[in-house]
Amino acid sequence: MRSFTYERAADPVTAARAVAQRQGAKFIAGGTNLLDLMKIEIETPTHLVDVQDLGFDRIEATEDGGLRIGALVTNTDLAADKRVRRDYAVLTRAIVAGASGQLRNKATTAGNLLQRTRCPYFYDPSMPCNKRRPGSGCGAIGGYSRQLAVIGGSDKCIATNPSDMAVAMRLLDAKVETIDPQGATRTIPIADFHRLPGDTPHIETALEPGELITAVTLPKPIGGRHVYEKVRDRASYAFAIVSVAAVIAKDGSGRIAAGGLAHKPWRVEAADTALPQGAKAAATALLAGAQPTPDNAFKLPLVERTIAAALDTARSA
Amino acid sequence: MTRRGVLTAGAAGAVAGGVPVSTSAERREMATMPVRFEVNGKRRELALDPRTTLLDALREHLHLTGTKKGCDHGQCGACTVLVNGVRINSCLSLVVQHQDDKVTTIEGLGTPEKLHPMQAAFVRHDGYQCGYCTPGQICSAVAVLDEIKRGVPSHVQADVTKTARPTNVELRERMSGNICRCGAYSNIAEAMAEVAGAKA
């Protein structure tokens, strides 16, 4: 691990300034992903600003009947919150489908949204990776790409976003609240928060330098069956090959989002519209324009089957 | 000589053999940071390089070598300890982030004379073979039963609004962050079920 200096910030604007003013500075909260990457020197921050004392650790009701989830609420506490379990069960289900108990106890809501891809070429410093070293090329294209993106990729990057939580957040139309080094706040819809790789795969989110996530808000609950189906190589503690988050009403209408397919949680309006016609129609709409590799073309039929499984689970309730 | 003594002597031999190490002058220049926290009920104060993980602070600086380093990347669970009563991977946490925290390691759960009920159950059910993952397994197992009691939901629950029962499937799912290459999983689950049953 490269050496760095460390400070614990006492308020959000001071934290944002500390990161904005210093080349190579980064926020640290739970640190579960950042420290992992620092150990293999894929992340090499020169200064860490610890945000754990900023008090963003509560879940509160909002005026419009939704919830405001503090950026520092742990994955475990978010999944276990009674209101989330009752009204946003798809979020609880997505969170407990990811990582391990130990990691969920430490990982935070904002940190989960900011976790980096698990593309094996990103993790291997001896391989080219436009995300790790912009301009060096993509080892995954033409390489081993079984786990990687089938849609929304570019000729620079076919990495996937590894988060389960983010798929549920996308399904629920969550919003990300931030504060910048000048103290200005803004709200970013989750659909615009994660970027597609395009020509700049190293720029993964809409956040500006030093901009700090303070909370994630959920709109008021939507009725229906909340389902999260995750397909992976072992029954627990593995990243998704394909995952589907869904909220399905009694009449078969609803919404779906998918994980394991793209650089961001994948949601397409036409797929929601097609849902009442069944899994095949929904999958066709969701995957319009897909460009799989020979290694990961199996994900396309798997998406249809995972949607079918989600619809089955919803019906059997 | 203890097993640890042999390992330390081996490492010193490697250094004498020409492996480059930082000189003591370089070490002195390295900026350290103070951290004060409680480990197994004792107040501890250290001044360490900020890169030091909680795991390395426990093992290398406080000489609490019960907590094990397996993968050092949060994938195996051998380093599991309790921080403020909650289990975490101590390898993925900087010790400077634990100012004023209360840490419990395997040494703080029980002693050879007075085993923690989970330790005694592991012995009774043969919940280990080589023993390397065992301290992490036991810390995790103790925390899992507490998480179930506190109503933390899991992936295998049919209804996440309910409080889970400590069934075999529940225990196995919740222990998936602790890998055992000897494959003692069945006996670990039985040890946990016994402790959960005794509590109920």
From TrEMBL, chain A:
Keywords: FAD, Flavoprotein. Residues 1-223 form the FAD-binding PCMH-type domain. One of its GO terms (molecular function) is FAD binding. PROSITE patterns: FAD_PCMH. The keyword Flavoprotein applies. It comes from the Bacteria. Pfam families: FAD_binding_5 (PF00941). InterPro entries: CO_DH_flav_C (IPR005107), CO_DH_flav_C_dom_sf (IPR036683), Diverse_Substr_Oxidored (IPR051312), FAD-bd_PCMH (IPR016166), FAD-bd_PCMH-like_sf (IPR036318), FAD-bd_PCMH_sub1 (IPR016167), FAD-bd_PCMH_sub2 (IPR016169), Mopterin_DH_FAD-bd (IPR002346). The keyword Nucleotide-binding does not apply. This is Molybdopterin dehydrogenase. It comes from Sphingomonas turrisvirgatae.
